[in-house]
Amino acid sequence: MRRLSFIFITILCTSCSFDNKTGIWKDASNLPVDDRVAESISNDSLSRGYEDVFTQSKIFNEEKESSKFFYTEDTTPLRITNWPEQYATPTNNISNFFYSGNKILLSKSPKLGKSSSTGNFFKRKIVFYKNNLISHDHKGKIFIYSLKSKKKIFEYNFYQKKFKKYNKEINFIVNKNILYAADNLGYLYALDLEKKSIVWAKNYGIPFRSNLKFTNNQLFVANQDNVIYSIDSSTGDKKWKFSTQLTLIKSDFENTFALDLSNNVLFFLNTSGELYSINILNQNVNWVLNFKNSSLANDAELFFSQPIVLKYNNLIITTENAVLNLNTSTGKKNWDFSIEPILKPIITINYTYILSENNLLICLDNTNGNVLWSQNILKNIKDKKIKKNFNSVIDLKIVNNKINIYSKNGHLLSFNPSNGNLSYSSKISKNGISSEIFFLNNNMLFVDNANKLLKFN
């Protein structure tokens, strides 16, 4: 009983304040924390449309040549100047990036930081704002690297020496020159990028474990206990919170948000396999779906998913062995497709593109989920060296109307989106790739395995 009491008291840790003048944490051990229960969310949760949508069927594993369908995609490549959050946009989805396409290396930065036990930058979040890269090292030091001057122009370490031994995992989002950060120690803070000073800082007691979303002076974040917080971005104070189902066993999958700004709806997929649709104006839960096998007698089976993506009225959800298309308004399932996806799908106006565990690149019809074509990405590679060494896919993007697939060892394969035919293959980085691929203005950027930023035109 003493041990249980100790654990319970430890969980009920507290918010603490930050002395912006001295940079020293004040003692927060005696500050109370709110009980972790639903607040401001409508209490009629039993009638909110909770539905079990677990399905299981034979995994798709075959190649299919493009049929004579009328390819109707008309997506103009999007030129973006800032990458202010993980996955770039509130919907976690960009259908088609603009890039000059010359694939000429323009610059390579010095090392952005030392390697850690995580091995590469994929565990370290990166955002781009006003032609600057913003990231952190494993010790929690936030730094800004200027693409223009090609050097670090700012470094800041938020943490006391007593946290030195802990590897930091920090999620970022930038809005109007303010960088918001949430970490795996339970700290949430705001850093003014112009004044280079802390605006506010809070300790919410439990590690945060989600991407961040921002709208109307609200910052949305979730912790490892699957509790959603709405934070006042000006003060860091909690506006409301809502507890969803807790997962006792932790996996690498993180809670993910997607935001439908036109309808003021926040979508939240938690580590228990629950998907919530929440009205952010009145805090009512519109509907809830469960994607984890409800026949399990306990919580021993982990739930895995790629980040949720949104396009118009289509919401794409992945599980370990399926991809589902949902109606955003009702939560009704439009279709499901049995596959083992390994990366976040891309959804365009008419199609959904998926890369599977068995190296199949697949194009699905958004209307009914039918397979329009399916191609093995390695089948038509003529260069034997590339074919042999192309492994561990790290990213999937549509760029200049081509489907680009990138590997950790630095290879790029490019495919025609209308039929899946290979149109280009090359090695673009001798030191491999260890981050997401970013597109800003005319350029392609990524961090290699030597922790250097490569910039291509």
Topology diagram in text:
Blueprint: H1 2-11, E1 50-52, E2 105-108, E3 127-129, E4 132-136, E5 141-146, E6 151-157, E7 170-175, E8 178-183, E9 187-192, E10 197-203, E11 213-215, E12 218-222, E13 227-232, E14 238-243, E15 256-260, E16 265-269, E17 274-279, E18 285-290, E19 309-311, E20 314-319, E21 322-327, E22 333-337, E23 346-347, E24 351-355, E25 360-365, E26 371-376, H2 384-389, E27 393-399, E28 402-407, E29 411-415, E30 422-427, E31 438-440, E32 443-447, E33 453-456
Parallel strand pairs: 1-18
Antiparallel strand pairs: 2-33, 3-4, 4-5, 5-6, 7-8, 8-9, 9-10, 11-12, 12-13, 13-14, 15-16, 16-17, 17-18, 19-20, 20-21, 21-22, 23-24, 24-25, 25-26, 27-28, 28-29, 29-30, 31-32, 32-33
Quick gist of this model?
The chain has 457 residues and is mainly β. It has helices at 2-11, 384-389, and strands at 50-52, 105-108, 127-129, 132-136, 141-146, 151-157, 170-175, 178-183, 187-192, 197-203, 213-215, 218-222, 227-232, 238-243, 256-260, 265-269, 274-279, 285-290, 309-311, 314-319, 322-327, 333-337, 346-347, 351-355, 360-365, 371-376, 393-399, 402-407, 411-415, 422-427, 438-440, 443-447, 453-456. The strands form 8 sheets. Strands 1-18-17-16-15 form a 5-stranded mixed beta sheet, with no helix packed on it.
Walk me through this protein's architecture.
By secondary structure, the chain is mostly beta strands. It is built from two helices and 33 strands. The protein has a five-stranded mixed beta sheet, with no helix packed on it. A four-stranded antiparallel beta sheet has the order 2-33-32-31, with no helix packed on it. A four-stranded antiparallel beta sheet has the order 3-4-5-6, with no helix packed on it. The longest helix has 10 residues, at 2-11. The protein is globular, with a radius of gyration of 22 Å. The N and C termini lie far apart (63 Å).
